[in-house]
Amino acid sequence: MPDRLSALDASFLYLEDATTPMHVGGVAVFERPREGFDFEQLLCLVTQRLGYLPRYRQRVLNVPGHLARPVWADDPDFDLNYHVRRSALPAPGREEQLFDLVARLMARPMDSERPLWEAYFVEGLAGDRVALVTKTHQAVVDGMGSVELGQLILDATPQPCEPYEDTWVPRRMPSAAQLVLDALSETVRQPGELVENVRAFVGDAAATAGKVADAVGGVVRALARPAPSGPLNTHVSGGRVFAVVRTKLSDYRAVRALHGGTVNDIVLAALTGALREWLLSRGETVQAETVLRALVPMAVLEPGTVEFSPAGLVNNQVEAHLVDLPVGEPDPVLRLQHISHAMRRYTDSGRSVAARAMLKVGGFAPATMHSLAARAAGSFSGRIFNLVITNSPGPQQPLYAGQARMTEMYPVIPLARNQALAIGVTSYAGNVYFGLNGDRKAVSDVGNLAAMVEDSLDELKGTHW
């Protein structure tokens, strides 16, 4: 039987165009150890781990006439040096230069005739640091057969890369005639599939994605009212801007001790305050009842599951929830209370996964969780939300790529069509890192919004201090 893409995976390919590439990204910053950490060592590490990710050496083959969904096939021309690339920042290697490079890399679609992932080893960052920028298509990371590369190359202790002989041999690619024959055989068993495949390919992919939303545990219903209008729902250009925020996890815990709620609630409240100030700075009308609707994907447990585990993670259980962010509320504590109340019905459902449970997953699971969250968000019509916010807790102990310690990690969540801003949040080693991915035309001032997140958190901290 052919290894055919699921309806959801195929919809991500059909929905993709030049202005909305459907890949999830990550930016990891490393300190160079005394032993060094160079491009050859990264290649060695990736080569060692690639055997655990067979999808990363497979490409997508379309079926002639689109009689069936595409299939995965081993790429006989797989070239690791094409996918793992070397780059460098010009002096003085400021972080702004790195994030500008990230924005340009994320705006660029990937070659559909090769495996759908890329990694960039970026040298020249000030302070004798290097960065690893990853791009992985949403069709690749399904949480079942494949996780995100960033999860697999990180270890809890420094690990020297030993010489490794790659014995992988690609399987023979199916011919066009075999693809058609397989498709016709399946059509005989399921004739309705042919109509759906053609509809999706010729432009009705949004309907196809909506029909398979349950594949990622989505609970957003078609009857949801349209999202409020505003500057975040606009035509997306081909350019991107990227900004980051660094905050201390201890600050969120201090706010929680004062005002209650969860760390996730406080993250959303800090973003809500920042979005309020950002709207006001742009001259937007903000009234007491003004809200922005966020699509907030959350990890969930299968019914009857006692404890979250790595097996639970790879069962693709992510639910996307709609949360109205009260940007019209001027009081930061009331904003937090509104959000905590809205989130409580999800956290009290018995299915949501607590942060402490997710931390038991081996590797840097947030990389995979953000990918699954982006898949969940991509399953729904952009008309019902204004922006995507993903938040995945990470381990609080240092992690290493080879012998290089990772010091920072920022998610890069893709933009959907007519959605100008997506925010990913990850906690790691005592800090909380935000990655803000925006459209270069509609949200050119994303750096201002990033600074406002810090101000909003300070406002929550200082309310009664």
TrEMBL record:
GO terms for biological process: biological process involved in interaction with host; glycerol metabolic process; response to hypoxia; response to nitric oxide; triglyceride biosynthetic process. One of its GO terms (molecular function) is diacylglycerol O-acyltransferase activity. SUPFAM superfamilies: CoA-dependent acyltransferases. Residues 5-267 form the O-acyltransferase WSD1-like N-terminal domain. It catalyses: an acyl-CoA + a 1,2-diacyl-sn-glycerol = a triacyl-sn-glycerol + CoA. Pfam families: WS_DGAT_C, WS_DGAT_cat. The keyword Disulfide bond does not apply. Keywords: Acyltransferase, Glycerol metabolism, Lipid biosynthesis, Lipid metabolism, Transferase. The keyword tRNA processing does not apply. GO terms for cellular component: plasma membrane. Pathway: Glycerolipid metabolism; triacylglycerol biosynthesis; Lipid metabolism. Residues 316-461 form the O-acyltransferase WSD1 C-terminal domain. Its EC number is 2.3.1.20. Belongs to the long-chain O-acyltransferase family. This is Diacylglycerol O-acyltransferase. It comes from Amycolatopsis sacchari.
